[in-house]
Amino acid sequence: MNNTLQETQTLLSGLMQGLPDTSAQVIVAPSFVNLAAAKAHLGDSRIEVAAQNMHSADKGAFTGEVSAQMLLAIGVDTVILGHSERRSLFGETDALLAQKVRTALAKGMKTIFCFGEELADRQAGKHFEVVERQLREALFPLEATAWKNIVLAYEPVWAIGTGETASPEQAQEMHAFIRKTLALAFDRTVADGVSILYGGSVKPSNAAEIFSKPDVDGGLIGGASLVAADFMAIVKAI
User: DSSP 3-state assignment of 18?
Assistant: First the structure.
């Protein structure tokens, strides 16, 4: 929940001007009220636009919610689901997220699915168990063909907005575990084909080292994405 319309446009202008020559897919996710304006402002830029959330229903008595059809009507075909703040602050469960994912995929949308353990889980040595459960309950009922429209974003909750960051080795260990889990649940084609992003206090000073790991395909960037120069420095590191 950052940036007014004018602030969003200023940030996007900075991103467009600073966008490096890169093969990386670059996506921004403004607030709902700024999505249409962001699409218009970016024009034919290579920077894409995603929504931060959506409801599983097509329409109805869900005051304050936004549907897939509403997003698609303004040209937004990518949505972030399961962000740690949606889980912790708004009580979103794996069962609810499974419904949202199915709706997004049924509407032809691409989904960036977030998941990850809290500090207590990590300290108790249950981080692999928690991550496997989140994936299993929300995504494993899907057909293997659905994975072409899914991007995974591993968020160690203890490293979000805290200034703490999982070490590159910790990130690689978890990302490798995720691929192994997918290979067992589906097949190696699915496991190798899905992009797995790391989200947890990525910044210009640590991005290159994190992204150098073989199973880390990119980042879900938080606070650093609000500063054009920082975000573009991270893009350059991929």
Answer: helix
Q: Give the whole-angstrom CA distance, residue 215 versus residue 176.
A: 6
Q: Catalytic pick from 41, 117, 155, 175?
A: 155
Task: Retrieve residue 103's tokens.
Answer: 């709706």
41 catalytic? Reply is no
- Model pLDDT for residues 22-61, shown as the tens digit of each residue: 999 999 999 999 999 999 999 999 999 999 999 999 999 9
Q: Which residue has the tokens 């709706």?
A: 103
* Residue 83 annotated to the active site: yes
pTM score of the predicted model: 0.96
55, 83, 127, 175: which is the annotated catalytic residue? 83
Residues in the chain: 238
**CA triplet 39, 151, 33: central angle to 5 degrees?**
30
On whether the CB atoms of residues 171 and 206 are closer than 8 A, the answer is: no
Q: Which two tokens stand for residue 98?
A: 């499974």
End-to-end CA distance of the chain: 26
